[in-house]
Known about the structure:
Blueprint: H1 20-24, H2 26-29, H3 34-46, H4 51-68
Amino acid sequence: MMDEQKPTTNIGGGVDHPDRHAIDDWVLNGPKNARIEELVRELTLERGLRLSEVEDIIVNVLLVHLSAS
């Protein structure tokens, strides 16, 4: 019996990237940096932002970073 492999996308290449497996599993496992969770928790539970607002902030910062590259 063969192990079933989950399909991966190859947007922008990166097949040989050292973090490839962690990137592919990001949606399931989340970030490994615990500080991200702490900041999200503070922004939502202590400052009242909705999780979708925090996700929007993250997306916007990443887009700014990409456009600067």
